[in-house]
Fold this protein.
Amino acid sequence: MRRKLNGEDQELKKDKTYYPLTNSQKSIFIIDQFYPENNFVLIAGTLRIQGTVNYQLLNEAINIVIERNDIFQSRMTNKFSEPMQYYVVHKKESIELKDFSYPQGIEDFYRWEKTTGKIPFPIYDSKLFYFALVKFSESEGGFYMKCHHLIADAWSYVLTINQVIKIYKELETGNLTESIKMSYRDHIIEEQKYMVSERFYKDKAYWKET
């Protein structure tokens, strides 16, 4: 059965692997359900780069980071009695370029950034992140990144930005290094093991008593 959801063509297969939300994700999900279409659960900002920016390489760097971190391939579903998540294969995409160089100017950028940062993500069967390349002038550019708190916190947001810059510089020098792919799915599995472990029940008893 195939259906198109929120701009993404998803094939629902019986053998698709579904994962539970982690405890941290569940807390964010509850906030989102109580206050739907809000921007409290969004993390957004712009990284500005001084100097001439190669937007083709920056586009490539962002795609590599998305591919190497499977949390960006996570999608939520409501087809079960409780929210679950599944993962899709990343397909390289052309990231849009927003040009705020003269005559648009920096004020237009500030208005766009403020408005875009408040636009909620469709929660189900949709990407929970958004990137845009940003041009300020011939000598300054960068990129905008927005994520739902379900897939990122402040620390991982900063780490992602650092990864993009690192890979962008490597592409500039033609020396792209191999990197360990980060798996959120492994984290989900480890948390599930902990939840049925003797250590969990000891921790639970301790905090209940405390």
Observations:
- The first helix runs from residue 23 to 34.
- The longest strand covers residues 42-50.
